[in-house]
Design brief:
CATH topology of the largest domain: GMP Synthetase, Chain A, domain 3
Helix content: 25-40%
Order of helices and strands: EHEEHHEEHHEEHEHEEHHH
CATH architecture of the largest domain: 2-Layer Sandwich
Distance between the termini: 30 Å
Number of strands: 10
Largest sheet: 4 strands, mixed
Strand content: 15-25%
Oligomer: single chain
CATH class of the largest domain: Alpha Beta
Length: about 400
């Protein structure tokens, strides 16, 4: 009998400080790539409140020649303000927000280096028969988060497919901050059940804690029932906890300082092993993001081409070297050996940083704006590392 293993994932709502900071960091990065496609940057964004106003610190390293560009700080300040207003449904003016800068120069010549710009061990996973080939706990956490954000931005209107059974046409009084955590148990690579869903939701005082729990509970149950109908698989009866500490009427930067580096697991697959640093706000020469996208792409190819039911792909980068380490684990779900699977991948998927940047068009600022729109790297199908292509088997397999 297989031992059971627990996995979990937490999806922050778009108004959660570290989620908001990460989105701003990616939008600033997209702007720098608009300025020059070879821009180098490693950005840190941290929001707080000062003198009754939101204040944001933007620091890190940026290509030296970009720092002297006229209006760069004004442009970045505008990006910060626009994102804050969108997420929080506010209409703040430039004078209503403080933005501080502490940007340091980074040697621009490093941008032309095709070798790894840092060391790292990114990982990613994929499942054969799940939504977007993602772990179910990850899909469910992100989807519930998206439902809550959608209700909030539409003034309390519940999506029609969730409002019917049980009847809950509206959910007014949500605010922007919060998170959704989903826990699951697996036997090997097979899901046993979702075991627990924990929600923390910022809300207006006009929405009582009892009403919040009742209505959000109904929305979550409606979504889970619909998920079972669509997928044709049972997902168990998870315990649902909503605002376990009681009412939560004030959140965001006003009470919690964020940092795009605070929660690296929001980017990847932490409960499946090695976890890289957060890669929001990094240029594509850094292996944390680029390597994780590639690891995810490889895992998706393996399950999408019926070579395995589950794949965990780990890459290993060493600063200044072109050689990339590769490790593939399928929990015994592949008919090919581990050696042969790795041979299949090395035969037709380049593993180097330069090739990956080119193949995924990672110097295109539209990529990063799409990531911010999704508020996730792997949930949507519009990003190149989430798509399946046909693999060709090499003739010299053992």
């Amino acid at each position: 009998m297989l031992e059971r293993i627990a996995h979990s994932f937490e999806a922050g709502r778009r108004g959660k400080p570290d989620e908001l900071d990460a989105g701003i960091a990616n939008l600033i990065g997209a702007h720098l790539l608009d300025m020059d496609q070879n821009a180098r940057f490693d950005l840190r964004v941290s929001g707080t409140y000062r003198d009754g106003r939101p204040m944001v610190r933007v620091s890190g390293e940026v290509s030296d020649f970009l720092l002297g560009t006229p209006n760069i700080e004004n442009d970045i300040s505008g990006i910060v303000l626009d994102r804050y207003n969108l997420v929080h449904r506010t209409n703040l003016k430039p004078e209503d927000m403080l933005v501080e800068f502490n940007l340091k120069p980074q040697d621009h010549s490093l941008a032309s280096n095709g070798k790894a710009g840092d060391s790292g061990n990114p990982i990613a996973v994929a499942y054969k028969d799940t939504m977007n080939h993602l772990p179910l706990e990850r899909s469910v956490a992100v989807r519930i988060r998206d439902i809550l954000d959608d209700i909030y931005h539409k003034g309390g209107i519940v999506p029609p497919n969730l409002a019917r059974y049980p009847s809950i046409p509206e959910l007014k009084g949500l605010r922007a901050d919060g998170k959704v955590s989903v826990e699951a148990l697996y036997s090997g690579s097979q899901l046993d059940s979702l075991t627990q869903i924990t929600l923390a939701i910022e809300h207006e005082k006009s929405l009582s804690i009892d009403e919040l729990r009742e209505k959000v509970g109904k929305v979550v149950f409606a979504y889970l029932n619909r998920l079972e109908m669509i997928t044709g698989r049972l997902i168990g009866n998870p315990v649902i906890y909503i605002n376990g500490a009681g009412a939560w009427n004030k959140g965001g930067w006003e009470v919690d300082e964020g940092s795009r580096e605070a929660k690296p697991y929001r980017d990847g697959f932490a409960s499946y092993g090695v976890q890289e640093d957060s890669f929001s706000g990094e240029d594509p020469t850094k292996p944390s993001g680029t390597g994780t996208f590639l690891a995810r792409y490889i895992a998706v190819q393996l399950v999408g081409n019926d070579l395995a039911d589950f794949a965990r792909v780990a890459l290993s980068y060493t600063i200044g070297r072109e050689m990339v380490g590769l490790n593939i684990v399928t929990n015994g779900t592949s008919s090919l050996s581990q050696t042969d699977l790795e041979k299949v991948i090395r035969f037709q998927i380049p593993l180097g940083i330069r090739d990956t940047i080119q193949n995924f068009d990672l110097r295109n600022p539209k990529i990063y704006r799409k990531i911010v729109e999704d508020s996730d790297y792997f949930h949507g199908g519009g990003l190149p590392w989430n798509s399946v292509r046909e693999l060709v088997m090499p003739l010299n397999l053992a």
